[in-house]
Amino acid sequence: MVRIALDAMGGDFAPAEIVKGAVLASQELSVEIILVGDPQKVGQELQKYKDKGKLPVVAASEVIGMDESPAQAVKQKKDASINVAVSLVKEGKADAIVSAGNTGALMAASLFKLGRIPGIERPAIAGEFPLPAGKVILLDLGANVDCKAKHLQQFALMGSLYAKHTMHIENPRVGLLNIGEEKEKGNELTREAWPLLKELPINFIGNVESKEILQGKADVIVCDGFVGNLILKFGESLGASVFQMLKSELSKGVMNKIGLAFLLPALFRLRKKVTYDDYGGAPLLGIAGTVFKAHGRAKAPAIKNAIRETVEAVNGDMTSKLRENL
Is residue 194 located within the same domain as residue 243? Predict the structure, then answer.
């Protein structure tokens, strides 16, 4: 059975929603979840559930806040929940870690304790975006604000391997996010990266424009973390805004309200498809261990799905396949 170390104190709604997500996951998945955090606070949350299964708690007396300096906090707060959870993976007491806490702290703790896969200088956050049919992987989503061309090359190779072995796409199409299709387009970074991606043993299809991200042109799209995080945050706000506008317009007038009654099931299915609750977590590719980052505002359903995705990555031996192929 896969063992997941879950940072119970990380995220805006910790520990209540984190513990609830762990309970849901334990009821639905074949997984052992180790809750890492304040035993008293975590224990109080666990008492709310009768059918909670076996959820052992490992004590951690400190918490790294979302606004703290990552590297400094990781070094100073040795007993922080993120540090303790990553240590469980390092010591072989857990197969992977899931955290909704400080992204930089999770990256720093993972680098300090687990290290990088040989050949990778900059680990990247790989996130999934929904398509009309299927998904597209975008990386990096914010782990590396400033990148060099060789880093984008490494992202492309990791993204291609992840899509092949986790999403089971035989020959993933990999694109470089740019402002035009021609290889001469873009800034210095993308112009330097284009030939480096072209020489990789992957299915590189060239540049992909932002308007094509959700059109299914590529299975994997590569960019630096600054651009990737902007796209991620804009996409989240756009989805919420569209649903607010639909709700406002469809609630005007009797006929619209009647139509809304028929549309509600489809709208709820669409909302489920575009919310991060359904996608749960994003892997930190390039770390010599399985590490998944859940959204900082993740509630129980998102935590449950992050655990599910992490179990799939462990069962698929994601880290070993990346190490072997890289």
Answer: yes
